[in-house]
Amino acid sequence: MSNALVLGGGGFIGSHLVSRLIGEGYDVTAADMHLPEFGTSEAGRFLLGDLREAAFCHSVFDRQYDRVYQLAADMGGAGYIFTGAHDAAIMANSAQINLNVIRESIRVQPKVIFYASSACIYPPPAIYSDQIYEESTAYPAQPDSEYGWEKLFSERLYLAHARNTGLNVRIARLHNVYGPGSAWDGGKEKAIAALCRKVILTPHGGEIQVWGDGLQTRSFLYIDECLDGIERLLQSSVGDPINIGSEEMVTIHQLAEMIIGLSGKTLHIKNIDGPKGVDIRTSHNERIRKEMHWAPSYPLLAGLQQTYAWIAARIVQNPPA
pTM of the full predicted structure? Predict the structure, then answer.
């Protein structure tokens, strides 16, 4: 039986990944500071601890794994990343995790290690004026947040060790992953989950708030296709960072209107000041089509329907005070 280690296995993507790997017959070890927020982990072993701590990280790498998935990071939505209040923690925490993971990977030599990077490594459109970001536009580098700078640094960290120590590395720049099981309140939720919560909790005829002018554009990647893309990447020979994201681009206003439409309510949108990130960002998928003969194609509306229904059920079960 092949084995896999999922670091960040208590998080949104990590918990879905654990379930996928178990279904494919892997012996899965997961490690995180917390268990999955919504439900239990299917991992055969779940090791609770802080990957910033060298001793804990060392204990996790107690065997040679066929696959290591490095998803652990200090992260959140725009309200967490773009206010500036968490910059030091975001950079220091994630960088320390990656330094520990690389040290232990060199020791046990997994067959392949996957690193989850982010579309946040790309410069804002004031630097690169196109609406889509192919991989080469990461340089000259100017990410719009410390989260993006740390992700870009860690990409280079993994690539340098691939060259100098022989680690077999795969890196994906993930674009706005969403779906059932994601955080929907508490301050670290992302745009889709936050808008679903607002729409669900607002009575017919009411008003929801949207940060910024609502004209900023994004593409969103459904969780199942995220996992499909990661699997295809690991089966490929692509050794440098590659986009895994949807090309279906919408404004945040359009996104809000789609979610309001799912509710069957008539709601008004009020724009307010708040962190909104860059004005334009979506995935460029020419390379993934050429090198992996695949690209995400799941319709945004279909993913929104499933996500909205899941969050609505959670709110019914655990209504806000």
Answer: 0.94
